[in-house]
Design goal:
heterodimer, A: mainly alpha, 13 helices, about 65% helix, elongated, B: mainly alpha, about 0% strand
């Protein structure tokens, strides 16, 4: 059975175990040192890591650096524009929303929500997808057929629609969004893990482990998993970005994270009716989302180049 | 080819069956339908009555078989909200979403394929980097926010195009760009990688050595082969776009299938939601089947697997 080409194409270049470094040219380095050295010379990776680092710091430090309580309403101070506009004030650097809540404070706390959802959803989907992919790649045969079949079925389901319907039935909340996204976004993990496992399952060190009498479980956990971890981390970053965008879309449609939580997607939804006169109400959270996802994607692409440079085009 | 076709069709049918089970189960297992239909103010006896009226007291298997048998005959029941046949609602809304999807795909292909070719030919120049930057940006842009931003720029500030509705073709320009931009990065990258691979191949070198004009090599020899996987990707992306158009239709108030789905979800109108999930999944399955068959027809090596 053939898998859809976009995921298959993603799977192909991610892993090749032998990294050839001419011994005479390069000084002898440990693999970790080599990766570190490549990382420090990769522009996209550095930019992505830099931006992401800043956002994570800002989100974590939100209780310390936020100038106001993100939930404190003040109807006498509604829709104050940000500082770079004529009526902006230093008291509300990024302005206030329709209920007079400080936009900068909401943005900082909203970062926590995006990161939390991205990481948790990627962990859940990573667990599901990796287990499926390892089984398919390691055992092959009918197990492989069944897993490929499940993946194909999952891909045929329209993600946004199914996520909306499920969230609506259970009632939208942060926990529900994490669970729904976690249970929907494991397909790429499964496809990549399967392909990577297939590539190494017949190599000598796996055969040696098998000959020495290790159980299948220990071979998979001790010999195979560590060798495909790089590819998994790359997929994890992509799926984290994917989950963050989907959460924003679900919250924008009113079925994700619920008010008064300051999700960035929700902030855009709440600002939508004012955007014709106060465009910054949607521009600020939108740009924040763009930078966060961009940073994660740059980091992921960079990691792939750094850990498996021969797959780069 | 015949064996491959038959096997592939069989798989598609099996997937279609599984998807219909899954979409049925999803709505029945995610919560108590009767309570959701009745609404927050309903009393116990009312819920019991609803459970009976909608056949929700039957065994799950019986419910599924009844639903699936009717769905096979394109009978998805009646909408709770509109009191109309679901199939009539779908027939009214699907063309708008398909129209949007086709224009969006055309936009994506017309931009992404030439960009991918140029990026491959001018590899590692500023053009290549620009193309890659556009694709990285495209993957990071929330589509609903991009749509709103397009409205701000082209409808509010420049006043070139209408804000919302579906009165004329002008209403479809911005939504199609917002939706198509989302599919561009994947198409661009695949075209670029395919071209890089083909341009480095022996037969292109032979063609060069024979002294064929570069343009002819590029189009007749390289692009023709590099574009094969793009066809399949385009079909898959088209399927994804139909599913993703729910967000774009909400932004632009296009009265397509996505908008209907969103409103029906908010109204707990389950027969409509279920039918839309099923229809979109079937379209996706048909598209991937067609793409696989076309690919196998164009590239005989694929028939082996």
């Amino acid at each position: 059975m053939s898998l859809p080409p976009d995921t298959a194409a993603l799977a192909a270049p991610t892993l090749s175990p032998d990294i050839a470094v001419p011994a005479a040219l390069a000084p002898v380095r440990s693999p970790t040192g080599l990766v570190l050295q490549r990382g420090l010379h990769h522009g996209g990776f550095l930019i992505g890591a830099g931006i992401l680092g800043l956002i994570v710091l800002a989100a974590l430090a939100a209780p310390l650096i936020a100038p106001h309580d993100p939930y404190a309403q003040d109807v006498s101070r509604r829709l104050i524009p940000p500082i770079w506009q004529a009526k902006g004030t230093w008291d509300h650097v990024l302005g206030t929303d329709k209920l007079g809540r400080d936009y900068l404070s909401r943005l900082l706390y909203g970062g926590q929500i995006s990161l939390l959802i991205g990481i948790s959803a990627a962990l859940i989907s990573g667990l599901i997808g990796t287990v499926l992919g390892l089984c398919a790649g390691y055992f092959g045969g009918w197990v492989d057929s069944v897993v490929s079949y499940i993946v194909t079925t999952r891909l045929a389901m329209p993600v946004v629609l199914v996520a909306l319907a499920m969230a609506s039935l259970v009632g939208g909340s942060l926990k529900v969004v994490v669970l729904v996204l976690g249970f929907l976004l494991w397909d790429r993990f499964a496809v990549v893990t399967r392909a990577a496992t297939q590539q190494i399952r017949n190599q000598d060190f796996v055969s040696a482990a098998r000959a020495s009498g290790l159980t299948d479980l220990r071979i998979v956990l001790q010999e195979i998993l560590p060798n495909i971890l790089n590819a998994l981390i790359v997929v994890a970053t992509l799926e984290m970005a994917h989950a963050i965008l989907l959460e924003a879309a679900l919250s924008f449609l009113g079925l994700g994270v619920q008010p008064p939580l300051p999700s960035w997607g929700l902030m855009i939804a709440e600002g939508k009716q004012y955007m014709f006169f106060q465009p910054w109400v949607i521009t600020i959270p939108g740009v924040a989302l763009l930078f966060l996802v961009l940073a994660i994607n740059l980091l992921g692409d960079g990691l792939r180049d750094i850990t498996a440079p021969e797959g780069r085009n | 080819m015949l064996a491959f076709t038959l096997r592939r069709i069989l798989v598609a049918l099996a997937v279609a069956f599984t998807v219909s089970v899954a979409s049925f189960m999803l709505l029945h297992l995610s919560g108590d339908l009767a309570t959701a239909i009745a609404g927050p103010e309903a009393t116990g006896p009312q819920i019991v009555q609803i459970r009976k009226d909608y056949g929700l007291d039957q065994p799950l298997l019986a419910q599924f078989l009844a639903w699936a048998w009717k769905a096979l005959h394109l009978d998805f029941g009646n909408s709770f909200y509109f009191r109309e046949r679901v199939i009539d609602l779908l027939a009214a809304r699907l063309p708008i979403t398909l129209y949007l999807g086709v224009i969006a795909l055309a936009v994506a292909l017309f931009v992404a394929v030439p960009l991918g070719v140029i990026a491959a030919v001018k590899r590692d120049t500023w053009i290549d980097r620009l193309a890659l930057s556009i694709s990285v940006l495209g993957q990071a842009m929330p589509s609903f926010w991009f749509g709103l931003t397009l409205i701000l720029i082209f409808s509010v500030n420049l006043r070139w195009l209408p804000v919302s509705g579906n009165a004329s073709w002008k209403n479809f320009v911005l939504p199609a760009v917002a939706l198509g931009y989302y599919a561009m990065p994947a198409v661009m990258r695949l075209t670029r990688n395919g071209m890089l691979e083909v341009l480095a191949s022996d037969y292109v070198r032979t063609a060069r050595a024979k002294g064929l004009p570069p343009r002819k090599i590029l189009v007749r020899h390289a692009l023709r082969n590099a574009v094969i996987p793009v066809i399949a990707l385009a079909a898959v992306q088209f399927g994804f776009m139909l599913g993703g158009s729910i967000v774009i239709e909400a932004v632009f108030s296009l009265q397509g299938l996505g908008q209907l789905a969103w409103e029906s979800i908010a109204r707990n109108d389950f027969p409509v939601v279920q039918a839309i999930v099923l229809v979109l999944a079937m379209i996706y399955i048909a598209l991937t089947l067609a793409a696989d068959l076309l690919n196998a027809f164009l590239d005989p090596r694929l028939r082996q697997s």
